[in-house]
Amino acid sequence: MAREAPLAYFLTFTTYGRWLHGDRRGSVDRKRNEPGGPGIEPSPSLVQYERDFRSKHPAVTFTTSEREAVRDALDETCRFRDWSLLALNVRTNHVHVVVAAEQAPERVLTALKANATRRLVERGMRLGGRHVWTRHGSTRYLWTEDAVAAACRYTLEAQDAASGRWDDPPDAYPG
Questions:
Q1: CATH number for domain 12-138, candidates 3.90.550, 2.30.29, 3.30.70, 1.25.40
Q2: Residues paired with 141 in a beta bridge
Q3: H or E, element range at 73
Q4: Which helix (H) or strand (E) holds 69?
Q5: Domain residue spans of the chain
Q6: What's the rounded Cα separation, in Å, for the pair 93 and 82?
């Protein structure tokens, strides 16, 4: 019998200006965004164009105190909304969250990003009206306990592994 709702979501979102179209790590746009489908080919000239002509604000890299503020805001958001925060890792240029929620992952992602931004602005760490995050993010559905465990392990352990690359999570998330 097929499960109607996923057990959790594995959400990843990046800071503004740190992962541009044409990046060697891979990127997608509105036309090329099918799971497992071809993305935008790596292109240093496209990255430079995005940086020079499309970026409206400076790229965002979090300090240690900004990372802590984001972490606190995400934890608080999950508690307030009665979502189960299973794993969280706030990096200098991206965030990974494993969360169980009854809402669609896009709504969860939007709420997390909005509240983290609000916290940064309230604390005077970022200027209001400036982008903090890139548009949208990755929303993977986790349908099995093994997939949830793999996403949590990746979020909590693989980020600091010397050989691990945060932008290449294992394909252990069926669904």
A1: 3.30.70
A2: 9
A3: helix 64-81
A4: helix 64-81
A5: 12-138
A6: 27
Q: Which helix (H) or strand (E) covers residue 11, if one does?
A: strand 8-14
Six-digit token string for 108? 């969860």
Which two tokens mark 143?
Answer: 């349908």
Farthest CA pair distance, the chain? 51
Global pTM exceeds 0.85: no
CA distance 16 to 4: 34
Chain segment 94-150, per-residue pLDDT in tens: 999 999 999 999 999 999 999 999 999 999 998 887 888 988 888 999 999 999 999
Q: Which string of DSSP letters, residue by residue, matches 101-155?
A: -SS-HHHHHHHHHHHHHHHHHHTTSS-TTS--B-SS-EEEEE-SHHHHHHHHHHH
Contact 145, 7 (CB under 8 A): yes
